[in-house]
Amino acid sequence: MTVKLYWKDAYLKEFDSVVERVDGNIVVLRETAFYPTGGGVLNDTGTLTVNGTGCRVADVTKEGDTIFHHIEGVPQINAGDSAHGEIDWNRRYSLMRYHTAVHLMDGIVEKSYQNGGITGGTIFPDRARMDFAMENLNRELAQKIVDETNSAANEGHKVSSKMISRDEALSMPNLARTEPGRKLIESMPEVRVVEIEGIDVQSDGGLHVADTKEIGKLFLSKFENKGKHSKRIEITLGESK
Ligand SMILES: [Zn+2]
Q1: pLDDT tens, residue by residue, 94-134
Q2: Distance of CA 109 to CAs 114, 116, 142, Å?
Q3: pLDDT digits over 170-225, tens only?
Q4: DSSP 33
Q5: Share in percent of the chain as helix, strand, coil (round to 5)
Q6: Would you state the pLDDT for residue 39?
Q7: How does DSSP classify residue 177?
Q8: Based on CB atoms within 10 Å of each CB, which residue in 28, 32, 37, 121 is the most buried?
Q9: How far is the CA of 103 from the centre of ligand 1 (A)?
């Protein structure tokens, strides 16, 4: 099991660890601040320095509780070596800002518009998209939702995470918004939840900014009507505050 330093502190940019095993170009560490692709969010990238040599971490994946760092080239690394990791902070911070923006927007849709029905989403370092089942969603309404999300972001809501038991999670309605999310809760003894104070609580394994003010301004960059129950909103963010 890899200790997830990013869950303890999403703002951790560097860390020290020990190499547990190496398999070709894949390195497993005792602990890591590198976030693996998951929950609709892309992985971190960065540098892993071992024995004085910096290696590029090009991809990070997860299987069960183990996190795999995919190194560029063939690293001269052995189990037991000390390692120093440094994540590409600009990319990560962008992903965090987009991720919180998506939760905020989702919370607003759930609150204000019945049957908003988010069905999925993907978060990139330079944009995010969300899919909704909402039948009456059109470009005007999408812009209204973005405007409302901007107002809420500006209010400065605190964002926090905690672990709760599965029983508690199952007793909270609407904790998971998608069907795979609901299935996942049933399979886990403990569930991590992310709360945007006063606006949204949902089960989530991802990383967020600490305050919605950090999101900055959202822009509606694309609206697609892909069918009666399939609308896609894409947003981009301005500068962080
Ligand atoms: Zn999320």
Answers
A1: 999 999 999 999 999 988 886 667 888 899 999 999 999 88
A2: 8, 6, 10
A3: 888 788 877 778 888 888 899 999 999 999 999 999 999 999 999 999 999 999 99
A4: -
A5: 25, 40, 35
A6: 81
A7: -
A8: 32
A9: 6
Fold of 3-87: Elongation Factor Tu (Ef-tu); domain 3 (2.40.30)
| Ligand 1 centroid distance, CA of 22 (Å) | 30
Name the DSSP class of 212.
Answer: G
Q: 12 CA to middle of ligand 1, Å?
A: 19
Rounded to the nearest whole angstrom, what is the distance from the C-alpha of residue 229 to the centroid of ligand 1? 21
pLDDT digits over 38-77, tens only? 888 999 999 999 988 999 999 999 999 999 999 998 778 9
What's the gap in Å between 11 CA and the centre of ligand 1?
17
pTM above 0.85, yes or no: yes
**Distance between Cα 238 and ligand 1 center (Å):** 20
Q: How many whole angstroms from 99 Cα to the centroid of ligand 1? A: 6
Q: How far is the CA of 82 from the centre of ligand 1 (A)?
A: 32
From residue 212, how far is each of 81, 94, 174, 182, 235 by CA, in Å? 39, 13, 21, 26, 16
CA 184–ligand 1 middle distance (angstroms) = 14
In the CATH scheme, what is the code of domain 92-237? 3.30.980.10
What distance in angstroms lies between residue 102's CA and the mean position of ligand 1's atoms?
7
